Amino acid sequence: MLPLVTSLIDHEFAWVFKDPVDPIELGLPDYFEVIKTPMDLNLIKKQLEVHQYDNFDDVCRDVRLVFENAILYNGEDSDVGDMALRMLDFFKEGYNKLMNPTSDGADMAQNQVQV
To answer: What CA–CA distance (Å, rounded) separates 38 from 33?
Structure first.
């Protein structure tokens, strides 16, 4: 999972999601009223590196949380929301390749894991 999270951090849109949101710097005074469980990609990477996750489902939950938080706060139709949706699709694709490494495209469509 670490290589997949690293690929997210290296993605062209990662600059929005890789570090914790700083509501003061960004002028978002209500951020913590809306977002109850903040999450960022670098935190996920650090937790993977020190083996704080018990299973892949926990990692997937936190990755989804990063993007779901962005969509919740900014809206699905915003630039940030659009980037979050694209990043989530990128993650799902990478996760399915990770879970089905020998599958070709036709097999993958049948065996896709919902993340």
So the answer is: 11
